[in-house]
Amino acid sequence: MAQIDRESGCVHFIEAGAEAASLACQAGASATRLGRCQVHAATLRGVEAVPVDVEVSITTGIPGFSIVGMADASVQESRERVKSALKACGFSMPGSRIVVNLAPSSLRKTGAGFDLPIAAGILVASGQVRPEVLRGKLFVGELSLEGFVRPVAGLLAYALCARKRELGLASAPSGEVRAIEGVEWAAVDTLGDFRAGRFRRLEAARPPAASSSVDFRDIEGHDAAKRALQIAAAGNHGILMMGPPGSGKTMLASRLPTILPPLTQAEALESAVVHSVAGEDVDPILAGIRPFRKPHHSASLPGLVGGGSPPRPGEISLAHNGVLFLDELPEFQPSVLQGIRQPLESGRMVVTRADGSIEFPARFMLVAAANPCPCGFFGDEERPCRCTVPQIRKYQGRIGGPVLDRIDLHVDVRRIPAASVLATGSGTDSATLREGVLRAREFAAWRASAGAVRTPQEVVASCRLGQEEERFLTEAASRLSMSGRALIRTAALARTIADMEEREAVDRAHLSEALGFRVRGEVL
Predict the structure, then answer these.
(1) Cβ-based neighbours of 141, under 8 Å, separated by 6 or more
(2) pLDDT digits (tens, 9 = 90+) for 266-325
(3) Which class for 476: exposed (0-12), middle (13-18), buried (19 or more C-beta within 10 A)?
């Protein structure tokens, strides 16, 4: 039995007969005379979208609108947005008791993305929209007071969740979702689109190829620093550049992504999901450009490693599969710097809260820059240093030994002559350096054949050291009081240098160069 609302022009199904009940069963929603239905939705937990069922029940009783199921403040505010959006689009708000349950109830739900599924559930449960409109779709979107659907952060994560559940995704138009194949995307512009019972369907499309505007060609000289950056890029080693202000440390670091290989499709999707959850632009990453993050030295610990309420990815996760550049390294709070120690080795960051642990990906390449002292001119050949020895030691000591122990290359960057500065554009270009990086990676992949080297035993075995080379490395480690970690990392660095020369065995020359980069300021 149907009744036409003269004010809104909408059809209300007061009682669901056999035909309506059959349609409801086909759509996976239960339509009864009390008005019930279920809508597929999801909520973000870290960088993953977790399935949530939005159950809407319209019953007789005292009029009201309740949302239950561990919903945070932003979800509770959906009530007002949904009411206004329904009226603005010509629908009527039921005058009965409305209960919205977000299942499972043990999972905390956050964000404004529940506006659209809640509104869709009310429209179907009240009989204003046919239930088949919900069939095979996961709904996510924020509503404006006028009924327009806005995209929410993390659409890529929602799309992956929908693909995993073999559902389509209904959300506001966005280029993010179109980059994922295997997901039928229904673009919902306003709540008024529900009247037609179907939505615009968009196909997957790759974003246009992006290009970098910077090149190592812009930097004249600094051949030793370029060599170090090339080795770092070939083996994913951390690097620390130390030198006076204006010596070119930041320019060198900013051009490092130009010599790294493009992201693979799997790597691009991993990184893009993290950026999507954080509300960042994902087009350059989907085009294959590795992320380059440069947080300010005033960054907090949650801002750098992730956290907050609800937990969100930090800068080290936004640099996943890319470069994290920490400029003015001694200016960072020591406690903040110590927070990156564990992710540097494990490639992930685990944030523990009372309701469980959340894991963020954090496989990044660390590039750091620092002045040698507070005034910046310690060791400079032209300008004298005004700092005392205790001040210099205290300043450099802010970095901390455990962090330095995890950085494989330490490079001094000197100021270049004025004539070289004016000769910009004639230095070694990125294409030349990238060729060496790709060649070394290809040789390492052929040599390893079984995958990435991880354990200390595998690192030592991959070097194929002779007795003379092993004795040389052992004596150097003893003389320099190197830790076990430093010794293994030095061997891994020498292995990368040998890969750049396409040599199967590491010889003494490779070890000497690795030790020279590894132990800054020490003479064997």
Answers:
(1) 113, 115, 116, 149, 150, 151, 152, 170, 171, 172, 188
(2) 999 999 999 999 999 998 898 889 999 999 999 999 999 998 888 899 999 999 999 999
(3) buried
